[in-house]
User: Fold P-type ATPase A domain-containing protein from Chlamydomonas reinhardtii.
Amino acid sequence: MFTYHCYGMAGAAVLNILTHLFTHWSIRFRAYASTAAIADIDDGECVLVVPVKFNGSTELVPLDRRIVKEGITETEELSFDFRRQRFVYDPSRHAFEKLRFPDKETFEFYGKASGHGSEAKQLAAFDRYGPNKVDVPLPAFSELLKEHLVAPFFVFQVFCVALWALDEYFYYSAFTLFMLVTFESTVVGQRLRNLKELRSLQTAKQPIFVYRSGKWELMPGESLLPGDVISIGRPTSDSSGSGGDQVVPADCLLLAGSCIAEEAVLTGESTPQWKSNIGDEVSSESAGRSRLSNKAHKHHILFGGTKILQHSGDKAARIRTPDGGCLAVVLRTGFETAQGRLMRTILFSTERVSANNAEAGLFIAFLLCFALAAAYYVLVHGLEDPTRSRFKLFLNCVMIVTSVIPPELPMELSLAVNASLLALAKKRVFCTEPFRIPFAGKVEVCCFDKTGTLTSDHLLLEGLVGDPEPRPPPPPAATPAGEEGGASSKSGKRVKFRDEPKELGKAKAGGDLDADELADPHLIKDPRRFGARATLVLAACHSLVQVMAQEDSKDKEKEKADKDKADKDKSGGGKEKDKEKDKERESEVVGDPLEKAALETTNWSFSGGSTGGGGGGSGVDMSFSPDRRVRATLLHRFHFSSHLKRMSAVLRVEDDTPGLLGASPYAYGDSPAPGAVPPGPAATGPQFVVVAKGAPEVIKGLLASVPSDYDAQYRRYAAEGARVIALAHKALSPDLDSTSVRALSREAVESELNFVGFAVFQCPLKPESEPALKELSQSAHQLLMITGDAPLTACYAAARVHIVTRPVLVLGHVEEDRGHAGGSAGAREPGTEPDAAFVWSSPDEAVQLPFSRVWDDMLKVASEYDLCVSGDALAHAAAVGAADKLIPLCQVFARVSPDQKELVVKTLRAHGAVTLMCGDGTNDVGGLKAAHVGVALLTASEGSKKKKKKDKEKEKEKPVVKKGQGTLKMEEWMRNNPGKPVTPQMERWAKMIDQMEGAAGPMDADLPMLKPGDASMASPFTAKATSVAPVTDIIKQGRCTLVTTVQMFKILGLTCLSTAYSLSVLYLQGVKLSDTQATVTGMLSAAQFLFISQAKPLEALGPVRPHPTIFNAYFFGSLLGQFGVHLALLIYFYRMALAAMPETDRLGSDSEFKPNLVNTVCYIVQAVVQMMTFAVNYVGHPFNSSLVENRGLFNSLRISAAFLFVVATEIVPDINNSIGMVPIPQNIKAQLITLCFAAFVGTWHLERLLRALFPAPIPPAKGYQVYAADVKRLQRAGVIRKKLE
Assistant:
């Protein structure tokens, strides 16, 4: 009775412990056990928060109640904090919603912003929004370790260790426990290092002027509140301690003035971004009532964490700033800023599971069936023996069931994912969501942006086409303005871009027409021959800004001292020249590479960087002709919009050319153009003109008259790969004044324009693009291009990178030729036009097919041609419900907006395709986030490139020899022991320690914490590279990780099945392992699992793909086949040893371990089975390094094989005696070696045979091939007559 009471008390204690632990493991259980659901929110005390998938786990958070004052009224506010975000209860909707910040108000509201007018309002705002901090708390080591030690798997592992200890396997239990605690301590240490690094990266909020209670105050950045009006700009000195850069402390909206900001830390965009004020929107009655949108109005918003490179204040602002900075209003603070959201992603997107949880659960359920059968067998046969210990019987049954979930499973999966993160980090690829790495191994469709991703963003202006007023050729003796009369590389060698066949996907019939295929009378390459008006558009219609370079104060002081010293030895003339050089060196023009290329080619110069559009900015943007006699002053700018696909500017042109009579040719051309305002009395003075540029099909709809060959000209060059920009010009009435000109609407400015030519830009492919995409194409990936560029240009580039491999058709608007599609006047709402308004046409328009949304018609076209869809056509297809069918059939998407990029990727995902998207992180953000695997290319900003170059130069000038710890210790000993000689042994030790430190140094930084600058908000993967080459690295690593995960499941499955048999049938017969045997086997197994996770991917991608899931014929066929061989081997040798062993040596199941023949033979067979499992199931080529190349695993298997051979042959009998073995009869020994080798050969060939018989499915290269059944149906019906690929 006492025994049963003890069992009852032990059971109650275990139940109590499990209940307590379940409150840690399951938040829902904690909620069920400690809380009750209530109907009235007023009675609530806590909230159960369930986040979306892959964004962390469910949490039970306390409900806060606070009194909120609004004027004289006081109300109670219910809220809770979750993952650094605050959610407030809305009584009208009876739901919690994220705390609303004043970031979606009307422009009229922001235009009247005057900050917090009283201390009461400040306190109310502080209570509501809290301090402006992005803090990362640093928990204690013990607290984190406790969190890990009560995790379900760890508790289960400790439980298994306790079971082995109860079965008297003390050494094995101690070794396993030590390994588990060490692993968890290492993980905790890594987490603490990551958190410390993340804390150290928080940029200190610099003091900033804040307008409160009607006066300016200098306040710390942490005290900013939403609604504050601030003065922000780049510091004029280094007092900020930020190296001359002002880090934006919060998300702000510019009210007056303008800024140039570097946003590479958030978006990956290396080009500085122009930030203009909201003056235009406030002054416009219709725009003033519209609400602020983060996406549409991002050019007005300064995002937290970005740097201000330059600013231009506005002295005429409604509230004048005290330090000449820009006037801005704070929109969001803390973790709601752009930088805060990125930090939150890094902190809380922490899923580390490398395999599908559902798959793992089903697989464990499959193994559990075998374990339960084995446990039932032991229980039934054990109860038949009344002398058997019930405790030992129960213990054995529990051990059988728990063997289904290997204690090392979470450790092995963590090792596999962490090894992948480490390998990617070494290749400068950083991942914020590690669970996506195995998705990269399953990728079927790869989508790429074009400009800046596949092609270089450093453009060259090749020349001008269609200029109505070209100038005569210059005298032969004159030095060309540009080498060889056009844009050239810095070395003077022309870079050709039309070096491919004109007909996409077809071979060229004839020979070369010209050596460089550019010699034609239509293309004017010499910029001195460009017409005056075309030159003015190229030189003055842009959004470029001039940034003044600033250096660290110490460097500036040193350079100034050196300069002053050098000036003493120079003459006055030399000083003047140096001043001019210094001025050029101190400033640089930054902005769109296309606009920079146009400005450089025309040889005009530029100065300024003001708002240029509303707000009355004090800065002035001016463009100057090479002789500086013609000056174009910017009065108003209408910025480029991806939706409108154009930009325009209003200029005041002053022409002081000697001998000029009448109007300036920059205003009216050689003769007034049709429709232009005739020269009036003031024509020789300053004249107002409009300059515009944009997509040819868009500008066409804004022209007063369209040349007859307009379409033919631009399409010819676009089809040959050029980026073609249409240029337009218009002279305004001389009766207007500057105020009237600034008040003109965009519609009035961009109407009745005069065409002045097409600018033809070269956009060369990056050298890595073609090899990378060729490798992807050959490795069974479907390739797509999604770009904002023109369809013909996109198709040409796609043909060069293996995306387009057949004749191509472009789906566009039939009225595009008449100037309607894209024009502001003729544009129609998507879906309001019939399908007949769109047509499939080839680049040369030789083939034209009507568009039909009928599935069979679309499939017929897709089966015969590669397809390109324009943004307008895609919008129409989406509006009429045909996009879902059209998108999977196309290869190129051109002239698409950022929202349409996201639509394309989401549609592909909805069709079941595992999708990868690669872009430069700006307009591609939607697509990058929507893809399974988003890869943002994060190129270094110009500022950081220059700083890095300067630092390298300094290092060369002043070499620093870094001494290791060994050398330092030896030198310290020499100082403390003067006169004593240094022995050779001491020198060798010092050198050895230095070498060890050097080898360990890089390892410390192998797996750095993700941080702003390494990762961007754009996507889960961020590659610090300028090309698409990292995409292949990510896919290789993804395949390697996927294969490693699947083979780990198979190895663990085979191990569990063997263990279940050993613990059931063999246990009943008294077969046991000694403590030493179990420890040796466990150590070898742990080492082999470690080495499997260290497998490296191959350098080349192959067409063979890994199985995306474990539920397939190959996996289970291999698993059950190998288990059958292992089981037969165990049964055969068990029976053979049992027959040869004397009856007196037999042991009962409850007996203590005692060496005998059965134990000896079964131990060797079980160890051989374990070794075979690792050797046979290691996949190797074509996904990762082979077994021989994985030196760690190969050597550990060789050591295991050698050890088992020595033990089986009894070459060294002392080894056998030390681990509890007895001599083996010669006949058993011979069969043991022979049959074990035969089993290895058999399972090896079985595994390879099943891999060959059941390969992973290979996705088709083209979208239409997915619908093979429909294609065959159309072929049988005679609809498709061509023989398909």
